[in-house]
Amino acid sequence: MKLKNHVVHLDEVPSKEVKGPENTDFQARRQGVGALIHTEKLGCGLITVPPQRAAWPFHAHFANEELAFILEGQGVLRFGEESMPIRAGHFISFPADGKTGHQIFNNSKKPLRYIMISTMQHPDVVVYPDSSKLGFIAGRAPGGSQVEGEKVAFFSEESKVDYFLNEKHVPGLTGSVSRVEEEDET
Q1: Which of 59, 42, 40, 46 is nearest to 18 (CA)?
Q2: Is 101 within 8 Å of 58 (Cβ atoms)?
Q3: 72 neighbors 111 (Cβ within 8 angstroms)
Q4: What are the DSSP calls for 70-115, one per residue?
Q5: Third-level CATH fold of 3-121
Q6: Is the Cβ–Cβ distance between 40 and 26 less than 8 Å?
Q7: How many Cβ atoms from other residues are within 10 Å of residue 53's Cβ?
Q8: To pair with 115 at 20 to 30 A between CA atoms, which of 33, 152, 161, 179?
């Protein structure tokens, strides 16, 4: 292993805009570090959220635990049914339990900057309590680089279907299920 493959300066990390649809409260800049320094089981990024915005909707992961460290600014943490003010110096952990939603919102007049670290487990199911959605990410972890063959989909919980919907016959068998009669062994 070469040391230079495991060290990067923030000045060398490209910045990607994260932006929700027009007229929403979602906007941030993300500098993804993990892949650049060849982490395999951890993701890491610097997130900069402008005033009066959140980077992502309120959500809870089933597979990925996350940790935030607030570097600069202040905001509001939503955590399950509770909320509290946060500011530079706060560490915050987000469990991978599929039920404790979390979100950081910048309610100030200055940018909010934090480091987000997460496990990079996949597949992951993500619950979005505010909008009654489910997200499914397979083939890569949430926030990871896109890969060929990945499956990423979001569904309204209202669109639930029965497990056996459109399941009628086993391919290759005609009409209905074939049955093999047991031979009499006497």
Answers
A1: 46
A2: yes
A3: yes
A4: EEE-EEEEEETTEEEEEETT-EEEE-SSSS--EEEEE-SSS-EEEE
A5: Jelly Rolls (2.60.120)
A6: no
A7: 20
A8: 152
* Beta carbons of 126 and 142 less than 8 angstroms apart: yes
β-pair partners for 152: 137
178: which 2 tokens?
A: 């074939």
> Around 43, how many Cα atoms within 13 Å sit in the side-chain half-sphere?
22
* pLDDT value, residue 184: 57
In this predicted structure, the answer to whether residue 181 has a pLDDT above a threshold of 80 is no
Instruction: Break the chain into its structural domains and give their ranges.
Output: 3-121
Q: What pLDDT is recorded for position 115? A: 98
Structure tokens at 106: 């910048």
Can you give the pTM of this predicted structure? 0.86
Q: How deeply is 49 buried, as exposed, middle or buried, from its count of CB atoms within 10 A (0-12, 13-18, 19+)?
A: buried
**Residue reference for tokens 């809870």:** 60
Tokens 């570097």, residue? 71
